[in-house]
Automatic annotation (TrEMBL):
GO terms for molecular function: hydrolase activity. It is found in: Membrane. Coiled coil: none annotated. The chain crosses the membrane at residues 387-407, 428-449, 469-490. PANTHER family: D-ALANYL-D-ALANINE-CARBOXYPEPTIDASE/ENDOPEPTIDASE AMPH, PENICILLIN-BINDING PROTEIN 4. It comes from Bacillus bruguierae. Keywords: Hydrolase, Membrane, Signal, Transmembrane, Transmembrane helix. Residues 1-28 form the signal peptide. SUPFAM superfamilies: beta-lactamase/transpeptidase-like (SSF56601). InterPro entries: AmpC-like (IPR050491), Beta-lactam-related (IPR001466), Beta-lactam/transpept-like (IPR012338). This is Serine hydrolase.
């Protein structure tokens, strides 16, 4: 009897020991993951020169990790927190897509409808023929609208900016038959925003705030900068001369439905929980959320094993499904990625235009899932900035060189060591060649927007800050070089006896 009691007590003690150890093991694993994630984020933030990053991870309906890295404002040394607000870029599209599905459920529209039912004047053509474009095709980026239509979005803070943006399409041909293939064009979602206005008889920003954000508890989020009533807004930056540079881009109020919702990781955590089916408020029908994740597989994938849904990319990877989207504005980027089977979601918000934000989001997801990662990402803007920084130094040296040579000639003129001379055939030829070289350089700069299809205003807003400096440097050195040439052509050395 005593032996059996002892055995029972021993078994109970072992069970208690094991049960007490299990959470500690789990906690140890989580701590190790978090340590790796924080080291990874800090390393990538340093490499990319990103001023501030906000990270949140949700799992099974809980926020399991949330932290800010770096600064919301570099000059003021304001740290990033979970309250810091960021423009979320194209991750806004999922909000617009959900609103369209919600309006369909309410019987106010159908996704199979021709967009002209709601915007009668929006008649777009392919090969000169008017085309039928459905709301579904706008949702899935199969409308035939070209991706470079983003370059025509007007700078505007007017109340009718959304209509002004959509009207730019009237002067642009579709580049393929609607429904034939997927080509990502941000303006598709601006059209959907205008459809929302037409159907609801409300401004897009007012409708989205009241019918989408507030019901799901995203009370710290705003639809466009004009709505922001908070001191928590992060300053925006972009790369320039190999470090972060503060920059205030133009206002594109007509692009809000596609890219200018403003939020923080507190609210984005709620958004991801909603997407993963863990929203306790039941403010949005769960079936609508699931429908918004159904991709259009009637066309070829836009990336490897990746199709587009309603504001989400849907990808199969190692037998797992991932739902994701990146967002990029001139001075902010974001990345959301979710794994529905594990009810796991990761969101990254940053106050710099850089593709590192996407790489960080993918890396954090991999680390949380226990995978190994490689830190070999590079950003095209960072590469371009490095090249242009070197070129600015080279052009600056050339500029100084020609200034010194010109001053040397002027000095000799003052000292009567050089004198003016009439033009002869040889000097006219040299002047012509000299003029043609400088004219060619300046013409190339003027014609570059026509050649590339990228207006200077767009390049200035979206590219590194070194681009305009480099262009002005080229113009300056061309003028100084031309003046130096004129001094050489119109003067000559005095021959000493």
């Amino acid at each position: 009897m005593k032996l059996s009691v002892r055995l029972c007590m021993l078994m109970i003690a072992m069970i208690l020991a094991v049960s007490g150890l299990t959470p500690k093991i789990a906690n140890a694993e989580s701590s190790e993951k978090i340590q790796k994630i924080e080291q990874f984020v800090e390393e990538q933030r340093s490499i990319s020169k990103t001023p501030g990053i906000s990270v949140v991870i949700v799992e099974k309906g809980k926020t399991v990790y949330q932290k800010g890295f770096g600064y919301a404002d570099v000059k003021a040394k304001t740290p990033v927190t979970s309250n810091t607000l960021f423009e979320i870029g194209s991750t806004t599209k999922a909000f617009t897509g959900l609103a369209i599905l919600q309006l369909e459920k309410e019987g106010l529209l159908k996704r199979s409808d021709d967009v002209r039912k709601y915007i009668p004047w929006l008649e777009l053509k392919y090969n000169g023929e008017p085309q039928t474009i459905t709301l579904n095709q706008l949702l899935h980026h199969t409308s035939g609208i070209a991706s470079n239509s983003i370059t025509k979005i007007p700078e505007s803070n007017a109340d009718n900016a959304l209509e002004l943006t959509v009207r730019t399409l009237l002067n642009q041909q579709l580049n393929r038959k609607p429904g034939s293939s997927c080509e990502y064009a941000t303006i598709n979602y601006d059209i959907l925003g205008l459809v929302i206005e037409s159907v609801t008889k409300q401004p897009y920003d007012v409708y989205m705030k009241k019918q989408i954000l507030e019901p799901i508890g995203m009370k710290e989020s705003f639809v466009g900068m004009h709505q922001v009533q908070s001191t928590e807004m992060a300053s925006g930056y972009k790369i320039g001369f190999m470090q972060e540079q503060p920059y205030t881009p133009p206002i594109y109020r007509g692009n809000i439905p596609a890219g200018y919702l403003i939020s923080n990781t507190n609210d984005i955590a709620k958004w991801m929980k909603l997407q993963l089916g863990n929203d306790s408020s039941n403010a949005i029908d769960k079936q609508l959320i699931q429908e918004s994740h159904i991709p259009d597989q009637s066309v070829e994938p836009f990336d490897k094993d990746t199709y587009y849904a309603s504001g989400w990319g849907v990808m199969k990877k190692s037998e797992k499904q991932y739902i994701f989207h990146a967002g990029e504005n001139p001075t902010f980027t974001s990345y959301f990625i979710m794994q529905p089977d594990e009810q796991l979601g990761v969101a990254i918000l940053s106050n710099m235009s850089t593709s590192f934000t996407t790489a960080i989001g993918q890396g954090v997801m991999d680390l949380w899932e226990g995978k190994n990662i490689t830190n070999n990402h590079s950003d095209r803007n960072q590469k371009l900035d490095k090249f242009l920084t070197i070129m600015c130094i080279v052009v600056g040296c050339l500029c100084l060189f020609f200034i010194l040579l010109s001053l040397g000639i002027i000095r000799k003129l003052v000292r009567k060591q050089r004198v003016r001379t009439p033009l002869n055939a040889k000097r006219i030829l040299l002047l012509s060649i000299h003029t043609l070289i400088v004219a060619a350089i300046l013409t190339l700069i003027i014609m570059f927007p026509e050649i590339s299809g990228l207006p200077w205003a767009f390049i200035k807003a979206w590219g590194p800050t070194t681009i305009p400096v480099f262009i002005y440097s080229i113009i300056a050195v061309s003028i100084i070089y031309y003046l130096f040439g004129l001094l050489l052509v119109f003067t000559k050395k005095i021959k000493l006896n």
